[in-house]
Amino acid sequence: MNEATICNRLQGTMPKIGIRPIIDGRRGGIRESLEDVTMDMAKRAAAFLSENLRHSNGLPVECVIADTTIGGVAEAARTEEKFARENVGLTISVTPSWCYPTETMDTHPTRPKAIWGFNGTERPGAVYLAAALSAHNQKGLPAFAIYGHDVQDIGDTEITPDVQEKLLQFAKAGLAVATMQGKSYLSMGNVSMGIAGCIADETFFQRYLGIRNEYVDMTEFVRRMELGIYDPEEYKKALAWVRENCNPGADVNPPHLKRTDEQKEKDWETVVKMALIGRDLMVGNPKLAEMGYGEEAMGHNAIAAGFQGQRAWTDYYPTGDFMEAILNSSFDWNGIREPYMVATENDTLNAVTMLLGHLLTDAAQIFADVRTYWSPEAVERVTGHTLQGKAAQGIIHLINSGPAALDGTGRQTRDGQPVMKPFWEITQQEVQDCLDATKWCPAVDFFRGGGFSTDFTTREGMPVTMARVNLVAGVGPVLQLAEGYTVELPDDVHDKLDQRSNPTWPTTWFVPNLTGEGLFKDVYTVMNNWGSNHASVSYGHVGGDLITLAAMLRIPVCMHNVPDNRVFRPSAWTAFGGIEPVGADYRACAAYGPLYK
């Protein structure tokens, strides 16, 4: 273990996974013969999940097993009472045999639920699985089906790879649902430059995510800076760390707009204070209570946040780019720690997408503008270069002034390949490599108040997933995603393309995986059908996990390139038109409505 700080910095205990061993309740030899094998199945599931999962804050995932097997409604009720005490946020019912579905099923109205029916022939759990799913669907309580591909002998203790995959996919998404519930989204400011995604739609947050909305005006930053409502010792530590580790980049402003060295030094002092204040607003800081600011010490219990910045702030004060970039990264002057989810321009919907990606991957997220599609022809016309390899059919330029996590440099590695790791796996050398790969450039001319933007280029070869939640009148929230890869260009080609946008901002060159048809027939079509100017980028091909999570939240997926064998939704979705799954997803989400009604 490295020096990473592992803790729960939000209010509320971490959710647990409830394991429900379901058994044939008939006494006189049947139940008795199944007691050990059923409870052992529950214990194996619990051990597997605990060994292979962590919460996004690094804490271990705990499983709670029912005190007894569940053969009828009385034992189901006792189990539910235990789960309520233990803060169980999702359940997995397991059985190797036939049981009585309506008497044993989990009837909690909002808790994600799955059933693992053992594929055996002696007392087939698959029969219970099918009957129980039918009961769930009839009662409007959708559940996920986990059923192994190959027949096993009763008492076989192996959890086959296909079952493992579905257990993890369901559990990680279910933990995300449970973790969000009761937390806050903090708007620091309001709507930036008329961007609709900045509008905090309280109905969406509360009914679909279980998140409350909190608000502060950006003048709160001014108040805290002027009154010194931040830890002065940490400020000194942070400023010294910045001076040592934040390498200066090019100042591309014309001479009459360049800020003096004295102004730039003052800007650094301001943006470091902003980072401390933004974090304290989100999660609080007990040091403030020692200083006599008890209310401010509490924070807003914010699992995600956004900073308006433009233009009300940036016309006069330094940008929020440093605050956003360093909070979104997995490290700062205090060491390695869980990244915060902070959206630039207070784009609430991109913050939500970042949050979903973080809870599923445990890693930092790249916030970016979906800025430009470069066709092979356009690249060759401008640079004389012929795109090759994964980039041969064109590239998408992902770029934004400030909020891209420094993890997005791709300087963390696993088996020699670039990755974005869960923070507890990051080494001190990888932290330094990310910092060394980043330049901090004076803000460009339309940021009149100064400040600094990050400049880096993401390494090629990372499998990534670009995603975005959008709100659509008449439909509600929808999710779109594109799995693909990061690529790099020769330096001179990169520079020519980058100069046409903004050379002082971080670049990720992205190529989606193409299917040759529909919305993924080519790179241009992906770009042309993206629903917003922003996106969040997660490490890994996690589109299947996002689809599972979206189904739990009742958010339909309007665009994706995930292979069918990785799409995992509740069994009820088939009944809404399984031969046409996109429409079925929309119909199911509309029929069930938001998770928290």
TrEMBL record:
Q: What class of enzyme is it?
A: isomerase
Sorted keywords for this record are: Carbohydrate metabolism, Cytoplasm, Fucose metabolism, Isomerase, Manganese, Metal-binding
Protein name, UniProt field: L-fucose isomerase
Domain named L-fucose isomerase N-terminal-1 is located at: 14-182
EC no. given is 5.3.1.25
Q: Which stretches make up the L-fucose isomerase N-terminal-2 domain?
A: 183-362
Query: What cofactor does this one take?
Result: Mn(2+)
Could you say which residues bind Mn(2+) here? E345, D369, H534
- The record places domain L-fucose isomerase C-terminal at 398-560
Gene3D superfamilies from the UniProt entry? 3.40.50.1070, L-fucose Isomerase, Chain A, domain 2, L-fucose/L-arabinose isomerase, C-terminal
Q: In which pathway does it act?
A: Carbohydrate degradation; L-fucose degradation; L-lactaldehyde and glycerone phosphate from L-fucose: step 1/3
Origin: domain of life = Bacteria
The gene from which this protein is expressed is fucI
One Pfam family of this chain? Fucose_iso_N1
Question: Localized where?
Answer: Cytoplasm
GO annotation, cellular component aspect: cytoplasm
Q: Where is the active site?
A: E345, D369
Q: Cross-referenced NCBIfam families, in alphabetical order? A: fucI, PRK10991.1
GO molecular function terms listed in the Swiss-Prot or TrEMBL record: arabinose isomerase activity; L-fucose isomerase activity; manganese ion binding
| Chain's role | Converts the aldose L-fucose into the corresponding ketose L-fuculose.
The catalytic activity, as recorded, is: L-fucose = L-fuculose
Family in the record: Belongs to the L-fucose isomerase family.
Q: What is its main location?
A: cytoplasm
Q: Which segments does the entry list as coiled coil? A: none
- Which GO biological process categories is it annotated with? D-arabinose catabolic process; L-fucose catabolic process
